[in-house]
Amino acid sequence: MTPLPACPPPRLRQPALRALALLLALGGTLPSALAHQGSTGTNSSTANLDFVLNIGKFIFFRVGTGAFPTASATVDTVAFNAVPAIPAGAVVPVAGNNTTVVWNGALPAFTAAATSLPVEVRSNAGQISIRATATTPLNSGANNIPLSQIVLSSSDANLPAPVVPNTGTGPAVNVTGTAFSNLVTVRSANWTFSYNPLATQRAGVYTGQISFTASSP
Predict the structure, then answer these.
(1) Does some domain include residue 101?
(2) More confident residue, 14 or 165
(3) Where is the signal peptide (predicted)?
């Protein structure tokens, strides 16, 4: 039998030589970003991408004029008009000179109508606390009235009103959050301001100021 002539070694085409040279230069491994051709002839490749999303904290707080999202520079005024009623029979005296009224001489009782203001808190900063600060005492010349005689109540227990101190800053009250385990708060209510005047306080027009602060940890 006549032997078959020896086959020459296979020759690599130029693209194959380049791919082989690249493989050797990479130490025999291919980078993960290169597509791999499977037995079905389809190519696939996977690349990962990380994301960072930074959401800043904010607190929107108003007592009185304004509404979210517009802030207001207006400072509202709560005014009380103390009206006396004298015994007997709690008679309200008529303003004027030389008026006649039955009065047994006992101390008069004063009443003042309450005033309500809208309050709003919006935040994504977690637990929100509110405090009241006695910024300016109630003064009329040399006379003064303790600010603690101003009593606050709220129409919604989830947005409570803080206690007004005589001086300095009073204790904090916590606002109940509305979503995400108390991290997000959207609350609104009406705070009612009441004043119980005393007959032993001197007549006059008393002015003062209270500041309210909403804060997060």
Answers:
(1) yes
(2) 165
(3) 1-35
